[in-house]
Amino acid sequence: MKKLFVRIDDRLLHGQVVVSWIPYLKATDVVIADDEYANDEFMRELIMSSSPEGVNVYIKTISETADFLKVDSENNVLVLLRTIEGLKELLKRVKIKNINIGGIGAAKGRKRYYNSIHLSDHELNILKDMAKENVNVEVRILPRDKALVIR
């Protein structure tokens, strides 16, 4: 049975994920789920150049990610998305029980929600709607941090 961990982090595959999350989760596969980056050769090469040894890294569209997640395997899979909108699209295609919010940078229309998490009212409402649909939505930067649950 596949173990799945889904994280929103607009930095995608970076030091915190490579050094903390991948070992903590014992992830064997990392899927970058992003329509734009899946079709951008430069970004694909950049992401692949930061891939940790011994971990399979895939860069897929949201639709391809959904198909990948539906295949039964014994692997521990970490799915990384840049945006809440991308997550919303993924949830239309595949059931996900737990979502981790780990890093969303400041931008126009966003307010600081918690540490390095900045959300617009629209994004926060999407997360709250997910929580109402029995999806556990947590904010946790590092594995050892106490989770802040969005309800």
Overall description:
The protein is an alpha/beta fold and 151 residues long. It has one domain: Phosphotransferase system, sorbose subfamily IIB component (Fructose Permease, 3-Layer(aba) Sandwich), CATH 3.40.35.10. It is 36% helix and 28% strand. It contains six helices and nine strands, in the order βαβααβαβαβββαββ. It has helices at 15-25, 35-38, 41-49, 62-70, 84-93, 121-132, and strands at residues 3-9, 29-33, 56-60, 76-81, 98-103, 111-114, 117-119, 136-139, 148-150. The strands form two sheets. It has a seven-stranded mixed beta sheet with strand order 3-2-4-1-5-8-9, with helices on both faces. α4 packs across α5. The longest helix has 12 residues, at 121-132. It is globular.
CATH topology call: Fructose Permease
- Cα separation of the termini: 28 Å
**Shape, please?**
globular
The share of residues in extended strands comes to 25-35%
**CATH architectural grouping:** 3-Layer(aba) Sandwich
- Total tally of structural domains: 1
What is this structure, in a nutshell?
This protein is α/β, with parallel strands linked by helices and 151 residues long.
Notable characteristics:
36% helix; single chain; 6 helices; alpha/beta; Fructose Permease; 151 residues
Topology of this protein?
Elements: E1 3-9, H1 15-25, E2 29-33, H2 35-38, H3 41-49, E3 56-60, H4 62-70, E4 76-81, H5 84-93, E5 98-103, E6 111-114, E7 117-119, H6 121-132, E8 136-139, E9 148-150
Parallel strand pairs: 1-4, 1-5, 2-3, 2-4, 5-8
Antiparallel strand pairs: 6-7, 8-9
Helix pairs in contact: 4-5
